[in-house]
Amino acid sequence: MPQGTLPLDGITVVALEQAVAAPLATRHLADLGARVIKVERPDGGDFARNYDADVNGLASHFVWLNRGKESIVLDLRDDADNALLHKLLARADVFVQNLAPGAAARLGFGADDLRAGHPRLIVVDLSGYGDDGPYRDRKAYDMLIQAETGLISVTGTPDAAAKTGVPAADIGAGLYVLTSVLSALVRRGVTGEGATVSVSMFDAIAEWMGHPLYIRMYGGRQVERAGVGHAAIVPYDRYPTTDGEILIGVQNERGWASLMTDVLGRPELVDDPRYATNIARVERRAEVDGLVAAETAKFTTADLDTRLAAAGVPAAEIRELDGLADHPQLSARDRWRTVGTEKGDVRAILPPMTFADVELAMGDVPALGEHTDKIRAEFA
């Protein structure tokens, strides 16, 4: 196993966080080697602890998002506990918070005050809609952000809109927090100055809406919901086989030629002017999808998948979640590890960032307040 130094070894992060977005960011910081001290409420802690009980009695979101952290329970309305958090921040490198707008400042942890006292501190405020504007104080759950940014309007089938199956707004915002912290740490290494950073879930998904937004603004049309298909590329959808379905995505004319000639045995369609370009195929979407489906229905899923891979045509089997848990790519690349929890060990996938000289940290998932006494003694 690689034995190098973790990238964020020696960095201390204090997180006044809950739910998904901020915990995702700080979990990645912990994976990268930072010490992450998670501050939780006395009345049950991070409410994500109670979303479900599917992981040996623990919540799936919490187990996913909080490994490698230390949990301290503080009542920030108590003077002594409030003072202790200030002591933690005096020795921290990064402070991340995603309380309701203005709540951190009312407790004495506003970015301006903290930076005035600790100019090297990197303060990140994560919100739903941003620091100002008419939506500033609105509730901002993932589904609501997906609705307000138009993501739901382009997701689903022609018959029904849908939100994404994972919390896209939370994940997107959390990754922008991660990027911001890493960028600020690099800049601080050059200038010695910390940073004040704001990230909002709304801004994150507004950024992700780039291509459908431009199509609406400049093309004058709403991107149609296409299920698993693509509004601007054909063939790019699910197609039947003798025993199921398979996804095929052809993004250029070389791919179209390979699909027709090397896989489906219809070389006469390669240069047919009705189908020779993607623009032409989009204009005849139903016709193209129908002719592709008529050919794919002659193969089993496994046989067709093999033929498509050999021809270099992008394709994928449509797997249920068991298919991911048992995916041969994860097994072949040794991507599973074991992490501890108060209810026993659980499997976890290695972080996506793979360093050649060191394996990223995969710390235990903390019980509520597990490190309270230790941290109180350390910062007394």
UniProtKB/TrEMBL annotation:
What is the protein name stated in its UniProt record? CaiB/BaiF family protein
Q: Which domain of life is it from?
A: Bacteria
Gene Ontology molecular functions? CoA-transferase activity
Provide this UniProt record's keywords sorted from A to Z: Transferase
Q: Which Pfam families match?
A: CoA_transf_3
